[in-house]
Amino acid sequence: MLELISLRTALVGPISLRVAAGECVAIHGPSGSGKTRLLRAIADLDPHEGEMRLDDTPAGRMTGPEWRRAVQLLPADPLWWEPTVSAHFTRFDAAAAVALGLPPESGAWPVDRLSSGERQRLALLRALDREPRVLLLDEPTANLDETSRHRVEALLARYRQDKGAAVIWVSHDAEQRARVATRKLRLRDRILVPEQEDT
Amino acid sequence: MTLISLSALDLSVAALLVVLLGVLSWRLHLGIGRELGVAAARTVVQLLLVGLALTAIFEHAHFGWVSLIALVMLLAAGREAMTRQERRFIGWWGFGLGALSMFVSSFTLTIYALLAVIGPEPWYAPQYAIPLLGMVLGNTLTGIALALDRLTQNAWDRRHVIEQRLMLGASAAEAIVDIRRLAMRSGMMPSVNAMAVAGIVSLPGMMTGQILAGAPPLEAVKYQILIMFLITAGTGFGTFAAIWLGAQRLFDGRDRLRLERLQQR
């Protein structure tokens, strides 16, 4: 589904990677190894060399916004600018909110009162609202307690299954990677290598 | 009523005031005394030079000379618009963006006013063309510099929100629309405000000058109205052009935010 061919920016790469529909690739690496930079390049937010394809369509055949709508990056620190949560959505999915342990009326919440955990979970819903084919997740559960963490993982597993979406999941948490990933990679010296079983 | 000519002595009396102000600011350690002196000296020298140049040009109303003066004015305005911005675009864009927008709006409007409204003979008669262009250009410069400064500064301050919008699939235009709107408003505000208070709070300089020179007040007023309309339109169109171009330049063809095109402080 998603194919990267010698993707390279000033800070990471060359990276070649194929992620199939329904697959979840977990990536980890030390702080500053360029994980966020890599996700930004895949979302076409930073200039890069190399090629990217989505379902065999080269990124160059889509506009930047079309690509980013299909290949959603969920940043570690998502931002909100409208007064209420639901103003950021095309359609606020109250059922999905409940699945993440949020009340159905959370769409009406003012954004400046959100806790960091609520911010993170609602940002996931906002990304899913665009119905992406690929999700790029940058530590999506960093501010969450264990219950919420599991809820997020369950919701993402279901989205992957139902929509045949591909996921690239950056996580520091080895147990989480073991739970969610179909494949585990490690970013080291600018490139992706298979994660050793013993680490 | 005729113009009372000012002698060098008359001007020295006025200069004394500036000297007094300089002494006072020196005593108060304002650190502006030197700049005050330099600026006052520049006013005298620059204006005298312009006076000499204008005298010469008025005597030989040649299109080439008028164009040359207009070009020099434009280049100076472009440079000034650039230096007034904290985070200007790097490379030629820093200068070109403002200069091009000013050229398009100020020159078009001045020529329009000369041909369609005032109608001097010849149409580029320097007595009309140069002061008119000077007033339109000076005000357009203020608006454009203000608006571009707002645009680049706000784009920098709100870069994370802009990128968050891009991540969600917004186009460059959608991601920066509110910042662009604010910048355009701030560029147009000074001339709109000037129109609102004209005659009540402020007596515009040009009108006052004409009255001092002996023109009937109503004639001076009519010219002032013309000038204010020209200034407002020139500033507005110039600001639109500059902000449109500037907002384009902040992004690339893939709708990525490219802030490295701005000078870092």
Number of strands of chain B: 0
Which CATH C-level class of chain A is it?
A: Alpha Beta
CATH superfamily of chain A: P-loop containing nucleotide triphosphate hydrolases
Mean model confidence by pLDDT of chain A? 92
Specify the helix fraction band of chain A.
25-40%
Q: Strand share of the residues of chain A?
A: 15-25%
Spatially, the strands of the biggest sheet of chain A line up as 6-7-8-3-9-10
Q: Total number of β-strand segments of chain A? A: 10
Instruction: Report on the biggest sheet of chain A.
Output: 6 strands, mixed
Radius of gyration of chain B: 21 Å
Per DSSP, the total helix count of chain A is 6
Portion of residues within helices of chain B: over 70%
Secondary-structure element order of chain B, as H and E? HHHHHHHHH
The chain-level structural class of chain A is alpha/beta
Q: Which series of helices and strands of chain A comes N to C? A: EEEHEEHEHHEHEHEE
Structure, explained:
The complex is a heterodimer of chains A (199) and B (265). Chain A is an alpha/beta fold. Chain A has one domain (2-194): Rossmann fold. Chain A contains six helices and ten strands. In chain A, the strands form two sheets. A six-stranded mixed beta sheet of chain A has the order 6-7-8-3-9-10, with helices on both faces. A four-stranded antiparallel beta sheet of chain A has the order 2-1-4-5, with no helix packed on it. In chain A, a hairpin with a 6-residue loop joins β1 (2-8) and β2. The longest helix of chain A has 18 residues, at 146-163. The mean pLDDT of chain A is 92. Chain B is mostly helical and 265 residues long. Chain B folds into two domains: 1-59, no CATH class; 63-261, no CATH class. In chain B, 77% of the residues lie in helices and 0% in strands. Chain B contains nine helices and no strands. In chain B, α3 runs parallel beside α5. The longest helix of chain B is centred in the last third of the chain and has 33 residues, at 217-249. Chain B is globular. Chain B starts with 7 loop residues before the first helix and ends in a 16-residue tail after the last helix. The mean pLDDT of chain B is 91. Chains A and B meet through α2 and β6 of A and α6 of B.
